[in-house]
């Protein structure tokens, strides 16, 4: 029995080429997430425990290794920055962990601001809402946070590969801590160049802490010590933090 003409027919080459066409990669900005999802606008109220280790930014290292773009490099001034590791036990989007790096000051129209240039969190919702609300360039990662007496061991990984490890020991007696003593005013950038300023407000009970060991894969996260970091910092437990609505800066 002969095959019908329809059976013999082959698809046109043009159609086959169209079927194999690869779609363009979508660009995610602070304002184009799927509108069907629930959103969590600022202000946010957060509580938990966390470590802050200061750094005095080494410009030569951070300009190349702190994930700065060309505009960042031109405005980067060094100075006081920090490494932060936080266990948010409560937040507007539920509990999550956070690792972030601030390499120091960035100048904008004669004023100095802090800027988070690298940040990982354990919650995808925190990623999306952090970008949306404050233009904070969050990325998702997996965390392990283990306490062994006064020692805390933290590891951060992506796709099963660890890129950051730290061991921290808490020291001495507690004392009050407040962001009014060490104010941090952030200036973050949206993808369209819009600049958003945020001054978070926090208080809690702190004690001294010391880094026993720290390592990072510099292709993913800066080396804190090479960037100008100090191994003595503050452990806050508990703390209360308010992240207000960001203000647009011209």
TrEMBL record:
SUPFAM superfamilies: Acetoacetate decarboxylase-like (SSF160104)
Matches recorded under Pfam families: ADC (PF06314)
Recorded superkingdom: Bacteria
Residues in coiled coil: none
Molecular function GO terms recorded: lyase activity
Alphabetical list of InterPro entries matching this protein: Acetoacetate_decarboxylase, ADC_dom_sf
Protein name: Acetoacetate decarboxylase
Organism the protein comes from: Leptospira semungkisensis
């Amino acid at each position: 029995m002969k095959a019908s003409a329809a059976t013999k027919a082959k698809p046109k080459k043009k159609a086959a080429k169209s079927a194999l066409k690869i779609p363009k990669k979508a660009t995610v900005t602070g304002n184009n997430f799927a509108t069907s999802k629930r959103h969590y606008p600022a202000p946010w109220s957060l509580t938990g425990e966390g470590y802050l280790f200061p750094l005095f930014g080494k410009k030569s290292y951070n300009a190349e290794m702190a994930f700065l773009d060309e505009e960042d490099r031109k405005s980067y001034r060094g100075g006081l920055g920090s490494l932060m590791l936080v266990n948010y036990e409560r937040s507007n989007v539920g509990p999550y962990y956070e690792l972030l790096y601030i390499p120091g000051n960035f100048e904008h129209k004669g004023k100095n601001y802090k800027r988070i240039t690298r940040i990982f969190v354990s919650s995808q919702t925190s990623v999306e809402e952090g970008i949306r609300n404050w233009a904070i360039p969050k990325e998702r990662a997996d965390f392990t946070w283990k306490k062994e007496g006064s020692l805390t061991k933290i590891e951060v990984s992506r796709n099963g590969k660890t890129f950051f490890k730290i061991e921290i020991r808490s020291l001495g007696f507690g004392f009050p801590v407040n962001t009014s003593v060490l104010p941090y005013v952030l200036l973050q950038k949206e993808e369209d160049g819009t600049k958003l300023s945020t001054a978070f407000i926090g208080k809690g009970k702190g004690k001294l802490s010391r880094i026993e060991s720290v390592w990072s894969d510099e292709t993913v996260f800066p080396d804190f010590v090479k960037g100008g970091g100090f191994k003595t910092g503050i452990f806050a437990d508990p703390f209360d933090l308010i992240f207000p609505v960001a203000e647009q800066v011209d």
